[in-house]
Amino acid sequence: MSVDPAPAISVVIVLYNTADLIAPCLRSVLDSRGVSLDVFVVDNASSDGGAVLVRERFPSVRLVENSLNRGFGAANNQVLDRCAGRYIVLLNPDTEVTPGAFRQMADFMDASPRVGLAGPTVRNPDGTRQDSVSLRYPGQKRSSGEVSGLPGTIACVLGACQIVRAALMRELGGFDEDFFLYGEDQDLCLRIRRKGFEIGHIDPAVILHHGGKSERGAPPIEVWRKKAQAEYLFYRKQYRPETVRRIARANRFREMRKILLTRLTLPFVRDRARALERMERYRVGYDIAVRQLGGG
Question: In total, how many domains does the chain have?
Answer without folding.
Answer: 2
